[in-house]
Fold this sequence. Notes:
By secondary structure, this protein is mainly alpha-helical. The protein is built from five helices and no strands. The radius of gyration is 16 Å and the shape is globular.
Amino acid sequence: MSADPQDVVAVDPDPGIDERARQILDFEREWWRYAGAKEQAVRERFTLAPTDYYQLLNTVIDDDAALAYDPMLVKRLRRLRSARQRQRAAKRSGADAR
Length: 98
C-alpha cells in the first residue's frame, strides 16, 4: 500500500532548531485533530497563555531553521500572519477615514 501524496510532509530530521520550536511546529501542523479549543490545548501542552504562545510562534516562524524543518507549514503560517496584519492595517486606515 502506497502513501497518499497529500499525507506526506517533508520534514528535515535535523534542521538546527531547538526542541521547543520543533514541538510548536508539530503542534501547529496537527492541533486541529484534537478535541477542544486550540487555546486550551496550548495551555495544557505548553503551559503557556495563548498570547505568550502566539508571540513564541511568531518568533519561531521567523527563524530560517524552522523554514528548513517544515517549509510548507512555515510558509503557510507566514502567509496567514501577513493576511491578518493587512486586515488590521485596513481596519485602522478605514477607522481613521471616518
